[in-house]
């Protein structure tokens, strides 16, 4: 079963509308997550909010949102009042314009969503909008209210559906000038550039996300398994840190030789190595039983 829609409303092109849902394109279900526990007892801890002036605990039903209008002065707003704030994009993704996809700088791209029709009623209208964009080779620009704020959203045909990608606003983006202006304009030696280009050629491949594992998460899972089994975590397995290149020409030549002796997955080798390199299905992260928790009863007793 696909996940529940993050947003439900209407996709609108002029007077043509159809009911749609927005579904997240990514999942965090397989991500390793930790709970905070009391190191002395092994019990989970819970978060509490404290009044900054009285040091009293504030229960959840007493907490309200406040906007600071002056030092120490707040205008409070209830959840009901916020829910009552609506603009057109709260319920409709109204396509305002169409652009060539390459005109949208990738630094503006944020979260992506699959957009699919809700029910059979609007399927034809949805297909017409989707195929018209595909035929003209354009992407739509619209707005949608998500998570309490209005976002720009880029709409692109994708298979039988539409891919929606929220965009950052101009005011959110930092200018590259502050980071790039001081980089000098260097005249690059042709031999250096040719060597680097040859290295790139040896590493050319077709992007295949199946062969890229999350090695950090796998290492964390192994750490958890080792501790659950009562073993000492392995030490001295740190990845080497790269140093500064002293002789660029020498480094490039040695790199080229290394790549020739150990060729990466090229177009020809990709199909052959795919089945061998494709990672096995991720195993669930083991639950650490209380009897094998890191915190021993003896330590708990000493702590008390």
What does this protein structure show overall?
With 304 residues, the protein is an alpha+beta fold. The protein folds into two domains: 7-29 and 85-172, Ku70, Chain: A, Domain 2, CATH 2.40.290.10; 190-292, no CATH class. It is 27% helix and 23% strand. It contains eight helices and twelve strands. It has helices at residues 79-83, 123-136, 177-180, 190-202, 215-228, 248-261, 267-277, 297-303; strands spanning 7-13, 16-24, 49-50, 57-58, 65-70, 73-77, 92-94, 97-99, 109-117, 139-146, 149-158, 161-167. The chain is extended and about 65 Å long.
Biggest sheet descriptor: 8 strands, mixed
Number of domains: 2
CATH uppermost class of the largest domain: Mainly Beta
Q: Would you list the SSEs in sequence order as H and E?
A: EEEEEEHEEEHEEEHHHHHH
Number of strands: 12
Kindly report the average pLDDT value: 80
Taking all Cα atoms into account, the compactness measure Rg is 27 Å
Note the gap between the termini. Answer: 48 Å
Instruction: Identify the strand order in the major beta sheet.
Output: 7-1-2-9-12-11-10-8
- Classify the beta-strand content into a percent band: 15-25%
Helix content: 25-40%
Structural class: alpha+beta
CATH topology of the largest domain: Ku70, Chain: A, Domain 2
Low-confidence stretches: 265-304
